[in-house]
Write a structure and sequence with these properties.
Helix content: 10-25%
Distance between the termini: 36 Å
Low-confidence stretches: 1-23
Shape: globular
Number of helices: 13
Radius of gyration: 33 Å
Largest sheet: 20 strands, antiparallel
Number of strands: 51
Length: about 800
């Protein structure tokens, strides 16, 4: 639960009832008018998973605010929304937390029947009853307003909602409408009271000024990264700092090109017209009428401050450095370092007076000129350090960790704030009430930028854990996805038709099915009737390129769309148990799918719409069907093949016998394969048996032990017997263990063979010549899936990690 509360605090940093109504208001219309922070999430499960696995948020949970929030939000453990959720926060006059939660009502949205020692009572209002629940000594009020569930720790908030007194302003609604539901969550913050407006500047004096009136951020939370983008807007003309950039165009932020590689932080401001910028700045922060006029800054397009090891420098970037140098009244240098002159600056107060409050308390008494830059500091050694790094190409700009975060940011920004790990720690402490030293060594670069555009500014922010450049032929662990409950099935891959990449599907022990992106975001969670049998297939039911998931449980056949919704006509429900995984056939590759259901001795054939196929005549086998029916095509003939009792059944499309196999076979537990155009499997005593298209039987004793495993493609045969793995007649002796069925993958014209030892939790991967792939075995706790799941050509391995986690590796 602590990670859920970490979410609320991270947002701060960045950012049973009766129902008599038939009309549903928009959720935004029910937001309390005094809410200063609103958190919106379309997928609460994706949110929980992202927060639980994020390494930075885990560290943030050490702040005492989280412990307080944990107590306040404890009743929300039992909150189960299945659509958009709004969490609204505010502080009252006593600085106490007020919160409310809003989501569309469904019958299981707030299940309290399993809560120990709960006290419930009904509180009457003028028009509707309100339930007061005391859970773990915390009180929460709940009711339904216009088909919408609302819960709060304040009775007055619910009463206001019932009486339609909640009126968030129109500007808030406009900004709310721009949120992106594809992200982990969104936040909308109002600056009123500044309770939940983030403080990102290096200077405390700037953090205490009003920056804007509204901030909206769409936030993606990954295992090691937090990526945000959105907008900020000031509705007043001159009382918010961001409006100092009104009427200007952002320029390229170039300060990193002269910043030493160990720079702690910098703040860069850019504009195309300094006169407009100066007029706006003076309106926001009026200056003394005795301010001295100067032409020094007339050609400046970038200005700011950089910080390194308790040393500070102010910099300018000039369009006309020759004129700027002349206006500085350059005198004889006080010294020269590496052919660059160091000058005395006799009027350091000019900088503070001109650019206040952006730059204050400047005591820079010396400066140097480096290309188009003028750098001012009272520490000559710091100026020399800047010169050395610039000449040695060891600036921040050259560092891999900096260039990686800039890939997620715009080159041009009105304001760019950068910080290293130490500075990130300081920012976190500034936004919380404690001074903590966090281990943030992996977060070498973080940044936030504001890009002014007409009457608002775009916002981009990134906190990214640096990963060293991948070494060729290495294995890198890309991400770990942690679920609330243990996994029931092994993870597998499905095609995402929206981006031609791969997503992950997995089921947990509570029979919830998850669809997860290849970077670890949970798209949705769906409760199923039971465990999925076998693997999930995909079909294009509407022949429009949009794929559906199709599979069976013990009493259902499901077809789900991209959003996890049941396709019309599904699920099919069965009284008798389904005993084999669902077989999906597309005979002519024309997307006229057939769904074959196995129930003991019986086969039932359905079309893609869930209608029984009357032309399929096979009804019942003499014995129980032991294997999942498979479809093979040889030439222009179709074969449906499965074992029942000691017989191999080989049928045509209509369910009639196509090939009569008269030989009795003592089948092993292996599937039926098509190998060298023959129907192939093994017997319990390790004999390879094959039947051709004419029903001719042949066998070969492979001397396989009991409980051996077999898998084939059309040309490749692999067996695993005790610790001996045979790949195309080449043998690898493994350590003794408990091995999964070997799998064959054919990718980029290369054959890969894999098996996992569940005892030692080692994944093995071999090529077609039985040679181990470099850097294997690796850690894993299940059979794997191997594929290229993203846009590069590197292959990825997906496997089970701990009992409730999925690991994604990349083969470099």
């Amino acid at each position: 639960m602590k990670h859920l509360f970490a979410f609320f605090m991270f947002a701060v940093l960045f950012s049973s009832c009766d129902n008599n109504s038939n009309k549903a208001k928009k959720l935004v219309d029910l937001i309390p008018s005094n809410a200063t922070l609103v958190i919106k999430s379309k997928n609460i499960e994706g949110l929980k998973s992202g927060l639980k696995s994020n390494t930075l948020i885990d560290k943030l949970s050490s702040y005492s605010e989280f412990k307080n929030l944990e107590q306040n939000f404890k009743p929300l453990d039992y909150f189960n929304p299945n659509s958009d959720v709004l969490i609204c926060l505010n502080k009252d006059a006593n600085d106490s937390l007020e919160f409310s939660v809003i989501s569309r009502f469904h019958k299981d949205i707030f299940k309290t029947d399993s809560i120990p020692n709960i006290i419930s009572e009904t509180v009457s209002s003028k028009t509707k009853s309100i339930t007061k629940s005391t859970i773990y000594n915390k009180v929460i009020y709940s009711t339904i307003v216009d088909s919408t569930f609302i819960a709060s720790n304040r009775l007055k908030i619910l009463e206001s909602s019932i009486e339609n007194n909640n009126t968030v302003d129109d500007e808030f609604k406009k900004i709310y409408s721009t949120t992106d539901n594809s992200k982990t969550f969104s936040i909308i913050s109002k600056s009123k009271g500044q309770h939940y407006f983030p403080k990102a500047f290096v200077s405390d004096s700037l953090n205490n000024l009003q920056f804007s009136n509204y901030l909206m951020l769409d936030v993606d939370v990954l295992q090691d990264d937090i990526l945000s983008n959105g907008i900020t807007k000031a509705t007043d003309s001159s009382q918010s700092l961001i409006n100092s950039f009104k009427g200007t165009f952002p320029q390229e932020n170039l300060i990193s090109k002269i910043s030493p590689k160990d720079t702690d932080a910098f703040v860069s401001y850019t504009f195309n017209d300094i006169k407009i910028f100066k007029e706006n700045l003076d309106k926001f922060y009026p200056k003394d009428s005795t301010e001295i006029e100067t032409e020094i800054f007339d050609n400046i397009i970038e200005v700011g401050t950089l910080y390194s090891n308790n040393k500070t420098a102010v910099f300018f970037n000039s369009l006309d450095p020759t004129t700027t140098a002349a206006n500085l009244d350059t005198s004889i240098p006080i010294e020269t370092y590496r052919d660059i002159d160091v000058y005395e600056f006799k009027s350091p107060e000019l900088i503070s007076n001109y650019f206040s409050p952006l730059i204050t308390n400047s005591s820079a008494s010396n400066y140097v000129k480096i290309e188009d830059f003028f750098v001012f500091s009272n520490d000559i050694d710091f100026l020399k350090e800047i010169i050395s790094n610039y000449q040695n190409n060891t600036t921040l700009f050259e560092q891999d960790h900096y260039s990686r975060i800039m890939q997620n940011l715009s080159d041009e920004a009105s304001i760019l704030i950068y910080g290293n790990a130490s500075r990130l720690n300081t920012v976190l402490n500034t936004n919380f009430s404690e001074e903590k030293t966090l281990d943030l060594s992996g977060y070498q670069s973080s940044a936030i930028q504001y890009i002014y555009d007409t009457d608002f500014a775009h916002v981009n922010a990134i906190i990214k854990k640096h990963k060293a450049k991948r070494i060729s032929n290495s294995i890198s662990e890309e991400t770990t996805i942690t679920l609330e409950d243990d996994l029931l099935t092994n993870p597998q891959l499905v095609t995402n038709h929206t981006n031609n990449q791969k997503d992950i599907v997995v089921q947990d022990v509570k029979n919830n099915l998850y669809l997860i992106s290849n970077d670890g975001k949970i798209y949705w969670k769906k409760q199923l009737e039971g465990k999925i049998l076998g693997t999930i297939e995909q079909i294009d039911s509407y022949k429009n390129g949009r794929l559906q998931l199709v599979f069976a449980t013990s009493n259902r056949v499901y077809v789900l769309d991209r959003n996890g919704k049941d396709v019309s006509g599904f699920p099919l429900k069965f009284n008798d148990q389904i005993t084999q995984p669902l077989s999906v056939f597309d005979y002519d590759k024309k997307k006229n799918y057939r769904l074959l259901v196995t129930q003991g001795k019986s086969l039932l054939m359905y079309d893609k719409d869930g209608k029984i196929v009357k032309g399929f005549t096979y009804k019942k086998a003499p014995s129980t069907i032991n294997t999942q029916p498979q479809h093979f095509r040889i030439g222009n003939k179709d074969y449906i093949v499965f074992s029942q009792g000691k017989k191999l059944e080989i049928l045509d499309r209509t369910g009639k016998t196509r090939v009569k196999a008269s030989t009795d076979i003592d089948f092993s537990n292996n599937k039926i394969y098509l190998y060298n155009n023959k129907f192939t499997t093994t017997t319990n005593n390790g004999v390879l048996v094959q039947i051709d298209q004419n029903g001719k039987f042949s066998s070969a004793n492979l001397n396989l032990k009991e409980n051996h495993k077999l898998t084939t493609t059309s040309k490749t045969l692999v067996t695993l017997s005790e610790n001996k793995l045979d790949i195309k007649s080449k043998t690898v002796e493994l350590d003794y263990g408990e091995y999964t069925e070997p799998q064959i993958f054919y990718i980029y014209d290369k054959i890969y063979v894999t098996t996992t030892d569940l005892q030692s939790k080692k994944i093995y991967l071999f090529d077609s010549q039985a040679k181990s792939i470099a850097n294997f075995p690796i850690y894993g706790n299940s059979a794997i899936v191997l594929d290229n799941i993203d846009k590069d050509r590197n292959l990825e391995v997906v496997t089970k990690g701990d009992t409730n986690s999925i690991i994604l590796y990349q083969i470099n």
